[in-house]
Amino acid sequence: MPQLNLTDLMIAQIVWLLIIFGLLYIILSGTVLPRIGAVLEDRRSRIAADLDAARAAKAEADAAMEAHRLATAQARAEANAAIAAATQSAQADANARAEALQARLDEQIEAAERRISAARDSAMGALREVATDTAEALVQRLTGNADRNAVDAAVGRELAARGRA
């Protein structure tokens, strides 16, 4: 087999291959690989710093959110308390106005009842007088003789029986 025939040309090529790979390894391990390692380490440290900054920002945002939630809850509680106080004040004011209005209405009703009672008494007095005069005139016409006291007593009894005396 000709492929396995190691000749001088083949040995020289293998030697040069080893020399070139050796030099390439020395150059890469001495200059290029440390630079690549430094870039990778720098990148790794930047990523770690960014992650730490992101965690810190998240913690800060969570704290701000919690503070906002607490402030909102406190403001809501204060608003509810103010609304309750205003409602209670308005209710007390409305109750005071209603009581004052009721007192005024009671006074007006009482005054109206007094006026009605006085008007009724006056009307009843006038009715009694008219009834007495009418009855006396009828008795005078029918009988020709009328006793004013007897007619007045009869009209009084009739009004009393009807509940108007």
Per DSSP E runs of 2 or more residues, the count of β-strands stands at: 0
Helix/strand-derived class?
mainly alpha
| Beta-strand content | under 5%
| Helix and strand sequence | HH
Largest sheet: none
- Radius of gyration using CA atoms only: 62 Å
Mean pLDDT: 88
Q: What is the overall silhouette? A: rod-shaped
Number of helices: 2
**Uncertain segments:** none
Termini gap: 161 Å
Write the layout of secondary structure elements.
Layout: H1 8-143, H2 148-161
Helix pairs in contact: 1-2
Describe the structure.
- It is built from two helices and no strands.
- It has helices spanning 8-143, 148-161.
- The longest helix has 136 residues, at 8-143.
- Helix content is 91%, strand content 0%.
- Helix 1 packs antiparallel against helix 2.
- The N and C termini lie far apart (161 Å).
- The chain has 165 residues and is mainly α.
- This is ATP synthase subunit b.
- One of its GO terms (molecular function) is proton-transporting ATP synthase activity, rotational mechanism.
- The chain crosses the membrane at residues 14-36.
- Pfam families: ATP-synt_B (PF00430).
- It comes from Roseomonas acroporae.
What distinguishing features does this structure have?
single chain; 165 residues; mainly alpha; 2 helices; 0% strand; rod-shaped
Give a quick rundown of the structure.
This protein has 165 residues and is mostly helical. The protein has two helices and no strands. Helix content is 91%, strand content 0%.
